[in-house]
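Sat 14:20. Reprocessing the chain from the morning session after the first attempt stalled halfway. Input below, unchanged.
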Amino acid sequence: MEFHHHGYVRTDPRIEPAAGVGLNRPEELPDEVDVLIVGAGPAGIITAAQLAQFPNVTTRIVERRPHRLEVGQADGIQARSVETFQAFGFAGRLIDEAYQLTDTEFWTPDPENPRNIVRSSTTPDTLIGVSEFPQLIVNQTRVADYLAEFARNSPARGEVDYGYEFEGLEVEESGEYPVAVALRRSAGPDEGSTRIVRARYVVGADGARSRVRTSIGGSLQGDQADHAWGVMDVLAVTDFPDVRRKSVIQSGDGGNILVIPREGNFLVRFYVDLGEVPEGDGGAVRATSIEQIIERANTILHPFTLDVKDVSWWSVYEVAHRLTDRFDDADSHPGGRRAPRVFLAGDACHTHSAKAGQGMNVSLQDGWNLAWKLGQVLSGHAPEALLPTYSDERRVIAKNLIDFDKEWSTLMATRPEDFASPRELEDFYIATAEFPAGFMTQYQPSVLTAGADHQALASGFPLGKRFKSAEAMRVSDAVRAHLGHHHRADGRYRIYAFSDADGSALNAWAEWMLHGEDSPLGLFTPPGGDDDARFDVKLITQQDYHDVDLLEVSPLFFPRLGPFRLKSYEKVWAAIPDDDIFEARGVSRDGAIVVVRPDHYVAAILPLDSRGELTEFFRPVLLEQR
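Finished this time. Tokens:
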């Protein structure tokens, strides 16, 4: 974290100075906004949080509830999401209060007495070598709280406008604010009143029954699995020994349970198999009582018992796998395809079972993917042509999610005797572990992801996948830290310059970056601001930090910041001899340039002697500023 460069900071440094629209932000919802977000769930609130980093973008987020969500349904946090929370500044605090997943226990029928269950195997739930962060269990309300805090502390001062329900919208052919949104007050002294808010763009993050989706002619398409589950968060007394470990239970009578310990050391979530739903049920299974769910849980857990003392939340659902036919309104116009003005994110785009813990996590990545693009376009940094990449990228991810969840939920509902092998469920869980952890997303070549011509220069940073962090030593103060932890959610690209052995190629590249007429630094960085306003450029040397002479390092890696034009000393890093990032990530000893998007995904890999290639990569996605 860098601060004091605008003068001494006397308060919490996480609270950034208000700027732009945040200086006199009106409490009342204005009549005109740049972005109107509908829904304050995971997708909506992370979109608002990222956009709050763009001080000249007026963003408002409306929520039909009268106040913050108090009891959320989602609770599983992938390691990839924790990496994301590090970018938003609260990973450490969330880890401290969350339950950490370490092992998964598998219980199956006792071969000697199939009425009973026995522990059959244990598999690690920590992906060693994949991420330095754990997988967590914590209520989604806490995630929303932290993201709301980030928005509130950002330059544009984001806040949620509660008590507004979306009624409909119309997209007009022209005008500065072409989307007219009808809202109704759902709470407050003026409850029932209606008004129109005009926006440049609208984000529908309003859930599986999205009215925004309906308003652009979209629909969820897919099928239902004809299988019902009861889910309950309970305080209970039990002799089941693994109640504080994630457990997958298959009983002799064919019923299954997924046990998810919750944060706080007492609360436990049970997903209880209620069996197949008869044809023509018409939703009657949803009338299953909490008492019936508890009774069913005790049957499956036999010979162990579950004495429920308190139920904080429960529900009954039928597994459904559905995907929206559109992620934006580009094809909703009767006159043919046009630039999108309305976007969908989160459950408005995809629904699936809850047992793989995917919903909130994928929704968060939807929102972050969209938000930085909207922020750059509305700030005049990027062309409007950047926006269709949201649908192009996230539709594929959502389809992969649905396909994975169909297979996982089917296996979870399978009777033990129907498996080809007693280990089939466990083997699938282990083989696919990186997918539910969030690390199998890989964006295909596009204007935002370069081709793989130079992938061999940094094989451990696969193009299109998230930047897999590694430790290095910051030379200025000899602090060992993860490079990726310094990639904040500030809307900037990262350029990691891995030096060649003697530094000659690196120095020539740095000179071009500083003074070349076609350098991206000169073309796309606005004059008069911080030197690193558009690109956070970091150097990683091969030699030990003791051997790095900072007086010989290019000024490129000491950008001047703030009104006093102070040097940043955060950009020069060295490999650690006993944990060499060059070896760990397969970086060539001839050096390499690794470009990372604002949302952590590797965008390009180039040799140090490239010049025009780097600039040409940025031309379609950034606007010249000089």
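The radius of gyration is 26 Å.
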